[in-house]
Amino acid sequence: MIEEIKVAYIFPGQGxxxxxxxxxxxxxxxxxxxxxxxxxxxxxxxxxxxxxxxxEDLLTQTINVQPAILTTSIACLRAAQEAxxxxxxxxxxxxxxxxxxxxxxxxxxxLSLSDAVRLVRERGRLMNExxxxxxxxxxxxxxxxEEVIDNICRSVGANVSNSNSPGQVVISGTQESLVxxxxxxxIKGARRIIPLKVSGAFHSSLMEPALDGLRTAVSGFTFxxxxxxxxxxxxxxxxxxxxxxxxxxxNQLAHCVQWQQSIETxxxxxxxxxxxxxPGEVLAGLIKRISPGVQVFNINNNQTVSEITRWxxx
Length: 314
Hints:
With about 325 residues, the protein is of the alpha/beta class. It has two domains: about 5-130 and about 205-314, Malonyl-Coenzyme A Acyl Carrier Protein, domain 2, CATH 3.40.366; about 135-195, 2-Layer Sandwich (Alpha-Beta Plaits). The chain is built from 14 helices and ten strands. Strands 2-1-9-10 form a four-stranded parallel β-sheet, sandwiched between helices. α2 (about 30-45) runs antiparallel to α5. The protein is globular, with a radius of gyration of 19 Å.
């Protein structure tokens, strides 16, 4: 058995989805099947089939993709726990990127799985509605200093929406502001500019019309004290107070996700190993750019579950 390590669990957000996610875990692990079955029953339709078979255009709708990624992430964790006979190292801290923050709340015992999927489905509906009211989008900018990007945003009326890692920042704004921002970023020497496939300008002031609805939705659910601190997207600091957690969920909708700072906070607290749990490998890539010396493991399919189990058993 390897010596104990200080671990953080981190969970992906919207954009990590792919057709077939969770299918092999559903086949091989009863714990994963129970997750998908519970969510299907909670929502009253087969979200699992949407995850496993698509179609892609339906899966990627904001109202569907948010509960789908959350559900798949929990299924990944439960499968890994089953495969390792519950010997997976417990987290000292948990965090999630945007939507992934809700997954972190489930793992920390703040929300039940059923309540979380209902809440994020409503969150997705509200975000989509806000995006339709004022159409906008998001651009990932690579290879520019954040100060340069801040100046670009101020000059065109956009917002920094994700501070992801050194050299990778996402901005949000109206389509007109993003056209101007793209032009300025090219002039300033951006290495790559990638439009994100989203239905609105998430984590920006354009999401403010959704805040009252989300506040009402949050107030309708039972929140418990977390069993482990959550690193908040907006402040990049640990939160354990229930009211502070509710405030964080509302604030992050229209404010920047401070992901790089969140990872740095966790490393400064002694975290040496991260488990990215859920579809994709986006967060692992960001962490390797933030701090190449830490260990990062993915748990996203049957193969990675088997690998983490063998690693754990030494």
